């Protein structure tokens, strides 16, 4: 009975308070035009194509039309297809139950494990911290890799970029940091990776030792550019949630280059 109650509670947290509707008027490449619903840029909408419900996101407006990009393929979408929106689309469910799990950009488990039920709501998009009030970098952070601790010492709160060519060990280094650093929790965003590389990283580089205290958010290169961008924001939302609980969190993103490519794809699509 308690499991049914938690499922119902989770559903009410993520459900919208009202529903707005519109219809598709045009499909051009990656962008769908519609008569509504007129919700803010970044809001989640759903395109109802027959029995399919395609999640999508508002990316802009053109005169009296709304511009939408779907998270999945647009097969079956036609003029007059209904579009609906939910009021709470910019919030995501997070909790410690996600530790040791691999999820997609929408927060759904993809590791074959049990569904993750319940949690706390947190904004997917947050304002950056005030540069005047944010903490200074004073405390040394142990990365668990002696060579980096000796020659490339980093501090708590510092950002570090790992730049190198393909196949030289960037993912291996990230796995070493996830396994051996003095962090409480790792949040790892795999953005634009090849499908086979995701499993190799989780099983070979991260391993059971690193996975048990990590949340892995995955959006592979064959997924839409919106999902790749959302995966990065979702990973950041998890990291900020655990940080606010007083945990030491390492946020790793592989890779920022592919995230920038996804942003460029959207910019070119909407003009």
TrEMBL record:
Cross-referenced InterPro entries: ATPase_alpha/beta_chains, ATPase_F1/V1/A1_a/bsu_N, ATPase_F1/V1/A1_a/bsu_nucl-bd, P-loop_NTPase
Keywords (A to Z) from UniProt: ATP-binding, Nucleotide-binding, Translocase, Transport
Top-level taxon in the UniProt lineage: Bacteria
Any one Gene Ontology molecular-function term assigned to this protein's record: ATP binding
Record domain ATPase F1/V1/A1 complex alpha/beta subunit N-terminal: where: 25-84
Regions that span the bilayer: none
Domain named ATPase F1/V1/A1 complex alpha/beta subunit nucleotide-binding: residues: 144-271
Protein name (Swiss-Prot/TrEMBL): Flagellum-specific ATP synthase FliI
Organism: SAR324 cluster bacterium
